[in-house]
# Entry
Amino acid sequence: MIKRLCLLLLVFTGFQIQAQNSDYRFSLEEAISFALDSNYTAINARRDIAKAIKQKWETTATGLPQINAEISYQNQLKQPVTLIPGEFSGGEPGTFVPVVFGTQQSANATATLTQLIFDGSYLVGLQAARAFLDFSENANEKTRLEVRKGVINAYGSVLLAEELLAIFQKNKAAVEKNLFETRKIYENGLAEEEDVEQLEITLLDLEINIQNTERTLAIAKQMFNVALGIDITVPTTLTEGLDQLAQENIQLSFMDQSLNVEQNVDYKIAYNLTEQRTLEMKLEKSQALPRLNAFVNYGTQANSNDFTFLDSEQLWFQSSVLGVNMSIPIFSSGMRSAKTQRAKIALKQAETQLEETIQNIKLSHDSAKNTYQFSIDKYNNAKKNLNLAERIENKNQIKFSEGIATSFELRQAQLQLYTAQQQYFQSMLDLINSKTELETVLNTPQLRN
# Structure
């Protein structure tokens, strides 16, 4: 039995080690889903909603019955002395007799039930708690949209770095081959030294670019992990390619989708602000209304010169009070009026900010559509430029090998090709990000929760 338990423990430990060493594999949608659950900012946004729910109940509970109990014990180490006229005890008039009233020790126990009957500020507070919950939910929605946008950008940045690294390494291999052949030709006296030097310069540039891209790729992967909410040292593998994502994000029909301003999360948050300012104005107005409370208490009291409060023979005297109190504001020297006017001004400001937000959303929509269209055009143009640059570089390679073109002309063609390659891959990322920006303005993902 012990051997079996040891064997099971080893197997379980092996599974744990294997699970710890295994890396994550994500498609873009899988990465977004993972981040919406695990991203640090998204987690705290959900906690904000939980806090708002608790605050709503906290506000509600203030209008429900409240019970408080109080227990007190007093021991008058030196009881106060009162002087009474001497004639009260048969003494001479004009004289006084020192007297101690009461017992040295006393104990009290009281329980009080209070109930709010009417308070205008309480009713406004309930509405404000609901509005604050709405705000927290909208803030969470905005956070989730930003998390989605950040993951898409981080995912694309990793793919871009990988594509650039691969193409730089491919270019390096081609240049190394050219350099080897040219050096042999130069050693045989059939080429100039400058031809070798030009290729050496190109090779050095590529090596520097490769080193920089390797560092950039490492940082991009760490940023991707942070966007997902996992440790930056955990290996991650992306299962989709940059070209595949670019093709999926070319949707010209998406340009025709109309804007519903009320669906935009920035509008929702700005509208929440106007609600808040409206409630603040109502709150100030409610301060002029009376406040009505009811209460009932029950208490018991015991007195003794010695500590006998735990004895069964100790006498306890009960008391109870039922009452209602009303607080009526009458005159505040214009303070309440000033507060109400200030709240009205704040409401007007919020309404102006809402109108400004609406206009900015419309502007953002038009700008995002323009940027998206431009990104598609730039991607198509970069693809054509890359094909042309490849043809030009290939022709110069042939001319150079035949001695028709100089090494300088070959280098210029190569640099043109390298630039076209980088622009092509960058245009893919720009296309993906611009589509995401337009989706965010339209709130098409609908990532409320």
